[in-house]
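Write out this protein's structure.
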Amino acid sequence: MTSFLYCDLETYSPVPINHGTHAYAEKVEVLLWAYARDDGEPKVWDVTTGEPMPDDLEEDLADPSVTVVWHNGGMFDLIVLLWAMQIDLPLERQHDTLVQALSHSLPGKLESLCAILKVGGSDAKDTEGKTYINLFCKPGLNGERNTRLTHPEKWEGFKRYAGKDITAMRAARKRMPMWNYQGKEHALWQLDQRINRRGMCIDMGLVHAAVRAVTKAQKELARRTVALTDGEVQTATQRDVMLKHILEAYGVDLPDMTKSTLERRIDDPDLPSALRELLAIRLQAATSSTSKYKSLLKGVSSDGRLRGTKQFNGAMRTGRWAGRLFQPDNLPRPTLDHGDIEMGIEALLHDAADMLYNNVMALTSSAIRGCIVAPHKKKLTVADLSNIEGRDQAWLAGENWKLQAFRAFDAGQGHDLYALAYAKSFGVSPEDVIRNKKHGDGSMRQIGKVQELALGYEGGVGAFVTFALAYNVDLAALPAKVLPAADQELVREARDFLAWTVKQKRTTFGLSDDTFVTCDVLKRAWRQAHPNIAAMWADLKATVIEAIDSPGKTFTLRALKIRRDGAWLRIVLPSGRSLCYPSPRVDDGQISYMGVNQYSRKWTRLKSYGGKFFENVCQAVARDVMAENMPRIEEAGYEIVLTVHDEVVTEAPDTPEFNHRHLSALLATNPAWAPDMPLAAAGFESYRYKKD
């Protein structure tokens, strides 16, 4: 029978924790070490007294039969122990209740977890803990240090608080399932911890140069803003003041100052040139990606590497990794081509960017990836799974024509899938779409791309519009391009849907009637071309409802198994991992479950539907394909330093045998549970990271 040692550290560092654990840990001190064996009473080792580690704690840490349990231990406590006490505990013996929670779609914060799991009474987390943390674990407002000697009574309360964390963690571990945090998944977590500890090499010279350039550019933008507004607006980032000035000075009432709104208005030839310049300044000044450079300044360790940037299973439900600190998953899409970025990096390093580039903010935003570099005698070898969600959509739903199209394309004998999407939707040949790309305006393939990205998960007009704006599709020009070529029956259905939408007083997204109808036609045409995927949405909804209404019974839907066990709905993936939905319910055909609202961050009831479940499944399967092959990549000598969505970034010896073709083949190896899924990957080698 497994024994458990529950542990928790209370620490002090002059470095703020929001700089990242690894920067924090370089100057950390352990104050208290709370622990308990199995159901025993918690004990607290006061490290500040100078007394040696208690014998029972030392024996349990050394005992290979004892599992050591932490809450956020992988991303905090274990790192602190390495720095402060040179204790390196074997990862295979560690259990992290925060990861256990995230793996089953529960929030990671211990206090929230205890509330949801109804951990109360003597086991509950002490809600007064924040007071003790602020008092003892951080420098005071004037830099003073509070200790057990300066506040002896408060220190005793601090120790009691430390013991409460143990009881709360212990109770939470027992009440959570273990489906997704054992076996291969626990081994993957161990690999994830090694990758996080390895970190990536950062060009700090470029970081400092970019910050200098941004600071200089912001001052110039502020100066031009003051000049253009006669001093009414001091900086272009003053949103409300800027909107008020534009309305009063120019009579232009902007609904907001989002990027898409500003870009549309800047192109308006009827606007005064001074107003167009002001809007352009606002666009530059609001480039938030430049703040990532400051995150690098704070978070990079003294050896020049940035660590702890990915949270294992941080994207609840799907099990994908979530970004931390530098947020590598939402790096901005470059607006400059690669050659300009390379030249711009050289200009930044010589403090000459403003002499060569009119928009320094766009340059620094485009160059942010270039801060990640290869160390001496190594190169970055990068590979990305090609359209993995489109592939697993077709594979899971049995859309056989599309599976064959992917296989033909991979063999160099077929057509680009975005071109094929448009061709299938409008009954034209893929060659026509390719000709339109080469000799026309390229709109056919671009429309097909937006269809593929927006419509695979039961998305409608709103989803199409969102992706169309992201990929610079001119919505106003769509009707003339699409409606004459469309199936007129689909056009009639779309016009009827518009009439119903207006009657129901639902949003038409500010679109003209013809543009709304065109977007809806594109939706209908895509669904008509993908009957099995469209059927999968309805089948998933029906099967989920059946499972919720029939606890303990397993329902099979193609490669998925769906069942309800007590308070949990599970969709078991082909890999064996489960998607988890706590407290599922069906009310008048509407499915809901408990989860964290992505906007309010509160634990609340969330509604779902067939297409959304399918999206969860497809994203999770894409994650599982990459996760299956990450150990294989490591074993081949490629050291993973970062994953970004479906891409792996590795450091490898700068020799020919390590190359992007080999890495791509490893990444696109078929798992045993998906031997017939068409997989492909592509990549590059470089000394600086880039968007390929």
